[in-house]
Amino acid sequence: MDLHHNIFYSYRGPANDNSDRDSQLENNLTKALVNTLQLGGRQVLEPFLAELKLPKVSQPKFLLQRRDLPSGGAWHKKHRVLLGLSKQTSQWSSHRREKKVYDSLPDAWIYGDDVAILIESKVNDGAFDPFQMSSHLTRLNRKNGGDPIVVLKTWEEIHGIFRRIAATLTNDHGCAAFLVMQFIQFLEYSGMTGFTGFRPDHFDYFITHDDDDTRGWVLDQIKSLAGQVLAGLRKVSPSFSNFYEDFDVGNFSREMDYCWVAFGPRGDAYRKLTHQTVELRANGVAVFVNTELKPATDRLKRVLRDTPFALRQALELVAEEPFELVVQERVQRRPRVMDYFPVMTLHSNVFVDQCTADVAWRTFVEMIDSLPLPYLQIRRLIPRKNLLDRTFRTSPSQ
Fold it and tell me: What CATH number is given to the structural domain containing 315?
């Protein structure tokens, strides 16, 4: 995988300043949007405008980084629109006009005989500059002609629109279909869409270990997925909503063949408790419950002594889907550095036969109790094929 094979994705260059990179990304996103709409033709532009509930543009023309239309009179148009695009939902309101304005520079224009659409794009959390937006509105205002229409969308919503447009295009549409798919991919690679479903690129990185841009994209995807998982855990387990305070993403260096994220109390507190973890690897996603630090393993030992069958009964309820109980012994090599030695692995199929289950469970309980520092994982792998075969949402409302 190489992000730069996408026709819109560009090299970052030597700049280290975040604001400069944001400015470059804003310009490139806007340019990619305009080029896709212009070169894709009416089969792309018209459904895009329809999704935004904007009027059709007859004989459409496009501009980038121009203060006004060539005629110098965007305010003359019958339909005038300020289209704001941002990474997150914006709190800016057109009702709060700033009295002091300046000569703003719009990111792009789409215009025709009786329509002028001014585009302003942002990539940093939806923070539109109120002075800039007021300046844009002043440019679009006309006396006795009504106020301009204001449409605010997130890039994730734009991604969903183009996903729906892509579903209407076939190979017969040639260039249009190709451009739309490249633009969809560019939005994903640029971190504008959040996690929208698994694709081969998520898993292939751990085989090829591509450049830092690719690793950064995988990490952003993991964080976005973690946010969705955290919300899901709170929803399906409302009685444990106080437990699921936050998530923690592990260190992800270029050489690592996995990336993990853990869920539980905020900060390091989750490590002292049995908690959930999700791990992305080349062969799929591992979902597991792990008990590692001594406060957590001591609590596990007490549970197994006081109610030895409670955990077993819970595991039997979910034994239809394969999982493993993995026990390792932790041995301290030096302060804060531990070595792990495999001790025992129980497959979920041992619970099928009662006799086998009894023997295996007694051995498991005795093993946990005898180890000074046990490490337990209840682990399930979801193969990449199963994840790629599923249909995922295309917008936040679905």
Answer: 3.30.930.20
